[in-house]
Specification:
mainly beta; 33% strand
């Protein structure tokens, strides 16, 4: 388990618990995981589409630290650089439909440098 894995453990556990509460809770896609790689100057893939409830695993396969900064400053899935060095991973379960843009601030801004996006659709 990478150093960043603890970052999303509480959020992931909350997603599992909320998934079974009431009819308004989104359905969870159990066992489905998609990987986004942080390579030296890009996310691969840069654009990802997943069903609501899918776990996204961010893995740093580059030679340097990266971070994952959501465009809207959502603290639930921010991955700071000190927890996302080479070889580290972090996961987050996206349960709400929408488009979630993010970037590595070490390489620029949301529009220039190392951006990415995850589009979450209803299953």
């Amino acid at each position: 388990m990478g150093r960043a894995a603890g970052l999303v453990t509480v959020a992931t556990a909350a997603s599992w618990l909320l998934g079974g509460c009431g009819s308004d809770a989104p359905a969870l896609v159990e066992g489905v995981e998609v990987e986004v790689l942080a390579v030296d100057n890009a996310f691969d893939p840069e654009i990802t589409t997943v069903d609501a409830g899918t776990v996204v695993r961010f893995t740093n396969v580059g030679r340097n630290e990266h971070n994952v900064i959501p465009e809207n400053d959502d603290p639930d899935w921010t991955i700071p650089a000190e927890r996302f060095g080479p070889g580290d991973t972090a996961t987050y379960r996206f349960t709400e439909p929408g488009t979630f843009r993010y970037y590595c601030s070490i390489h620029g801004t949301i529009d220039v440098g190392m951006p990415g996006s995850i589009t979450v659709v209803a299953p």
